[in-house]
TrEMBL record:
The organism's place on the tree of life at top rank: Eukaryota
Name of the protein: Uncharacterized protein
Length: 119
């Protein structure tokens, strides 16, 4: 497993976390048991602090020592995050935008090819 694969997945997860509300982040921490018995302490944190705390959890050294370097844990966390409505809706929108962007790129490539052939 390449470090870039892990880093790409970490970045994807952190970007998805940024789409969650504070309440969703607190729920997420409880769901994946990031804070354990300190759940009350998490409820008092801001959205930014929760994202930073979860990010630190995702980048902890114990994950790097696992056989898969924590990839299975990151995939599990990504799957949980994608169950939240805000993330799911935005992912669908991003997919549409990605398809539109790819269509525009192809359209431009065709236009360039036509222009080159006419010259």
């Amino acid at each position: 497993m390449e470090a870039t694969d892990i880093e790409d997945l970490q970045l994807e997860v952190i970007q998805a976390l940024c789409r969650l509300s504070k309440d969703d982040l607190v729920d997420f921490c409880n769901t994946v048991d990031i804070v354990g018995c300190e759940f009350e302490r998490v409820q008092n944190k801001s959205q930014v602090m929760l994202i930073m705390m979860i990010s630190s959890h995702l980048q902890r050294q114990e994950l790097g020592k696992l056989e898969d370097q924590g990839m299975s844990q990151l995939l599990y966390i990504r799957d949980i995050i994608q169950e939240y409505p805000n993330v799911r809706e935005l992912s669908a929108t991003e997919n549409v935008l990605q398809a539109v962007l790819q269509a525009k790129i192809k359209q431009n490539e065709v236009a360039v090819a036509v222009n080159q052939n006419t010259e």
